[in-house]
Amino acid sequence: MKIGFYSTMTGMPWGGSEVLWSRVAHRLLDNDIQVTVNYRWWEDTPRELDRLRSAGATVWPRRDPTWRSWPYRLKSPLNLEKETDHLRRWLAREQPDFVLVILGYHLNAVTPAAELIRRQIPYAINVQAASTESLDDIYLDEFQTAYTNAEKVFFVSQENLDRAETTLAIELDQAEIIDNPFNVDWHANPAWPAADDGFRLACVGRIHFTSKGQDLLIDVLKQDKWRDRNLSIRLFGDSQGNRTQMERLIERYGLQTQIQLAGYSENIEDVWANHHGLILPSRFEGAALAIVETMLCNRVCITTDVGRNRELIDDGETGFIAPAATADLLDTALETAWQRRDDWQAMGELAGTRIRQRYSEDPIADFYDKITDLASMHR
């Protein structure tokens, strides 16, 4: 049996949307199931692709239009023809029994769908994030065809599924909610840090205003009331285009004491050993791993009502949820949290209990079983 993976990732060489399928691919290879990957070409090949090659997968890099070509309608006919030709050669050479198409974002085109349908190769779609942006009518039939012909459409939150059904104007009867793998131990329990030098929140996620909303932290913390409180926020994550803007905004408003950029951290449990909670002002999400990892580490979350946040966090019990990603609503949620700061430790412990009731301990094994079951049905 051979399983193909087609990723639409274009915004950066590697991201959270690629973790689940790549780890499942390694498990397939470990069990003597062949794997072939179709992935956008990058000058600096992601290490994870090299690891898959070393493990025995075939990797076909393709020359997609860059992320600057988004939205889909800006792709030139020449670029689309090159992409289609590459796709045809990949399928003809590799002849996968089943293909998983991974969409980092719900408006990514399901490029392989038409060719997979023509060749009668079964496929599934994995949507890793959805926003409120809509789809142009001229593409509606194309997207509906791609989704309705998929064996399964996997989402990482009910909220994302609901948004996709609205965008596509159809009901996805074959849709299913899945969990993504996390990067802390299932039994993580970092000691609660002292607050002698103040309360510390971490904002964990790539520095990308459009999705993660870190600019809202500036609008909130520049107020006089927050300048007078013993609260600081450290941002952990690589830049996806907005680090310099964040640095200059911090400097402009003199918020060096309130907000610091801490860079990328390899060990997330170390982050929670030194912080009392998470603040994540996202404008849209799929299922933020930062939320899952925070709760597994028994910490409180302060976030927005996007993605899977409402499904995992109980507002006022295990965290605080702003109804939308605006400065006023985020300020209200943070104010409510600040007034209950002495409860954060107990709330975090309850968060740890609740997340283990609502989330899989081994999402990779779960998804491996789903993919192999789908692939086996058509052999």
Question: What brief labels describe this structure?
Answer:
about 375 residues, 16 helices
List the helices and strands and how they pair.
Layout: E1 2-7, H1 19-30, E2 34-40, H2 47-55, E3 58-62, H3 77-94, E4 98-103, H4 113-118, E5 123-127, H5 140-148, E6 153-155, H6 158-168, E7 175-177, E8 199-204, H7 209-212, H8 215-221, H9 224-227, E9 231-236, H10 243-252, E10 259-263, H11 268-272, E11 277-280, H12 289-296, E12 300-304, H13 309-312, E13 319-322, H14 327-339, H15 344-358, H16 363-376
Parallel strand pairs: 1-2, 1-4, 2-3, 4-5, 5-6, 6-7, 8-9, 8-11, 9-10, 11-12, 12-13
Largest sheet: 7 strands, parallel
Order of SSEs: EHEHEHEHEHEHEEHHHEHEHEHEHEHHH
Name the helicity range: 25-40%
Number of E strands: 13
Query: What is the first-to-last residue Cα distance?
Result: 8 Å
Note the beta-strand portion: 15-25%
Provide mean pLDDT, rounded.
92
**Unreliable parts:** 66-78
Describe this entry's structure for a reader.
By secondary structure, the chain is α/β, with parallel strands linked by helices. Helix content is 39%, strand content 17%. The protein is built from 16 helices and 13 strands. It has helices at 19-30, 47-55, 77-94, 113-118, 140-148, 158-168, 209-212, 215-221, 224-227, 243-252, 268-272, 289-296, 309-312, 327-339, 344-358, 363-376; strands at 2-7, 34-40, 58-62, 98-103, 123-127, 153-155, 175-177, 199-204, 231-236, 259-263, 277-280, 300-304, 319-322. The strands form 2 sheets. It has a 7-stranded parallel beta sheet, with helices on both faces.
